[in-house]
Design goal:
Elements lengths: L1 H18 L2 H20 L6 H10 L1 H15 L7 H17 L4 H26 L3 H20 L9 H7 L2 E2 L2 E2 H19 L1 H11 L1 H6 L4 H27 L10 H11 L12 H21 L6 H36 L1
Antiparallel strand pairs: 1-2
Helix pairs in contact: 1-15, 2-14, 3-14, 4-9, 4-12, 4-13, 4-14, 5-6, 5-7, 5-12, 6-7, 6-12, 9-10, 13-14, 13-15
Length: 340
């Protein structure tokens, strides 16, 4: 009797822990500690302008992290974003310098970005290889092409109408931040409410079972990689708004920061079917705060890659530990059902 009560108590605690999004709560606590510690060194860290500048600096990572969230939940990876983003910026820059309408130029760039995402999935499906290989090849190809197209020169001197548009603020917010907010709301609602978007959890956790249940997994993976390419294209356009220029070096190392943001938010890098937009947003805020704290506290930015690597390892470890809790909970439930 006593043993059964202990098991029930243990099951209750495990269920309680499972119901809490522990990794997200850990991130929130770490952010609070970071804010308190950095504010002692630099009181300006607490100002609203500092927060806006901090997020503005990582708008590109934030936009692409939304698409990467779906890719990682599906059990894949997309390294090509580090090539698609600067490629999109370069194409967009050349189009508007050729005096093609700003909005038509955007549409052309987004269609190209969608097509590159389509190619990623097509090659992944055709060659039957891990998306790591295909998307890395795409990244390297585009990076080389970016250098060839631009001759490693910065593209500047945009038309006046574009410069005016890039300086526009709505409700005190810049266009890049507004675009990020709109995309966060859209992806957050769709991934929690829309059935088609939510298929990603089923496909990611067990693609074979998803296919047997009637989901066209080939078409779904096409959607996953095309939406990732699309968001990288949007990030490329936004890069032109932020920097008023385009260059082949944009996006260097950005894929590792994006993946770290998503992993820190709770998406599993080892198994599919785990992750959410809320966690990704928290991961974005946390990573941007960590990097900004380097600047405000006078620490060399050369340590950023070191911190990125460490955070990625910790994120994977945390994710797996919480998965073990879920497994233990399910085992206890089955045992209790058998005892009944």
């Amino acid at each position: 009797m006593r043993s059964k009560q202990e098991n029930n108590k243990k099951l209750f605690l495990l269920n309680k822990l499972k119901s809490l999004d522990v990794q997200n709560y850990v991130l929130i606590v770490l952010m609070i500690l970071l804010i308190v510690s950095i504010s002692f060194v630099n009181p300006k860290f607490l100002r609203l302008r500092s927060f806006e500048a901090m997020i503005n600096n990582y708008t590109l990572e934030g936009i692409m992290a939304l698409g990467m969230t779906l890719v990682i939940i599906s059990g894949g990876i997309d390294l090509s974003i580090a090539g698609i983003m600067p490629f999109s910026a370069i194409i967009y820059a050349y189009l508007i310098k050729a005096e093609i309408n700003i909005y038509i130029s955007m549409l052309i760039v987004l269609i190209i970005a969608l097509f590159l995402g389509f190619i990623n999935n097509f090659l992944r499906s055709l060659l039957k290889v891990h998306p790591f290989v295909v998307t890395l090849a795409m990244q390297l190809t585009l990076k080389g092409l970016n250098l060839v197209i631009t001759d490693s020169q910065v593209i500047t001197d945009f038309p006046e109408n574009f410069t005016k548009l890039s300086n526009v603020k709505i409700l005190g917010l810049s266009i890049p931040i507004l675009v990020l907010i709109v995309l966060v709301i859209f992806y957050g609602v769709m991934l929690s409410q829309n059935r088609y978007f939510r298929y990603v959890y089923f496909v990611g956790s067990n693609p074979r079972a998803a296919e047997l249940s009637g989901i066209n997994t080939r078409r779904y993976f096409r959607f996953i990689y095309m939406q990732s390419g699309l968001l990288a294209g949007i990030a490329g356009i936004i890069a032109c708004f932020i920097f008023n220029s385009a260059h082949a070096s944009y996006g260097t190392g950005i894929e590792t920061r994006v993946i770290t943001i998503v992993a820190a938010g709770g998406a599993s890098m080892i198994r599919g079917g785990i992750g959410n937009i809320r966690g990704t947003v928290l991961g974005l805020i946390f990573i941007s705060m960590v990097y900004s704290s380097f600047i405000m506290s006078g620490i060399s930015t050369y340590y950023q890659d070191v911190v990125t690597g460490l955070l990625l390892i910790l994120a994977v470890v945390f994710s797996e530990k919480f998965r073990e809790i879920n497994i233990k909970t399910n085992i206890f439930k089955k045992r209790e059902e058998e005892n009944v």
